[in-house]
Protein: Cyclic nucleotide-binding domain protein
Amino acid sequence: MDKEILKKSLIFKNMDDKQIEKCLQALKAREKNFEKSSIILGAGQITESMGLVLSGNINIESYDIYGNRTILSNINPGHIFAETYAILKNEPMLVSVVANEDSKVLMLNITNLQNIINAKEDWSTKLLMNLLMISSNKNLILSNKIFTNSPKTIREKVLVYLNFISLKKNSNEFNIPFNRKQLADYLNIDRSCLSNELGKMQKEGLITTKKSHFIIHKKTTK
Structure:
């Protein structure tokens, strides 16, 4: 198990090796490997465990009754998923967790949350605080998702999303975690319409893009 990934992950923030080890024991940690496109957790499933991505990349997806996919978020190494469903016992998942590439995940059983609370040790206090911070951070991401999908036109949606990533990366040049199809699903727009709009924006000098790489060109004032 990659100890550096664990130390850098938000769930184990501010913990030393011994505290992390106690957490892993309390959460009955187990590693699992998933091939690209395989379902890690499916909609309708009840889970007792949250997952920590150790390597690879996964998507949180939802499908409507016609099979149309919407990508809700992308999870990279060091980040967790399904913690809300694991804490809320017997709550069926409304989304699916899918491997975007070959991935390794550390499954952490959190059904005995009360025991963790009762432990009242340094590691348990830090774990609970970290879960609270993760929850708060995800609320911000959800707010951005709603903000991104609020604009009416395709260009507005694209610009809001690219501006968010630019601010997050603190750079006008960056890679996004999606290919064209995935970005279209995330923004809830047609792929061909997205490609056409990106082409227009590039011709107008607003952006430069190739695959998942983007450069935003700031307007200069005369």
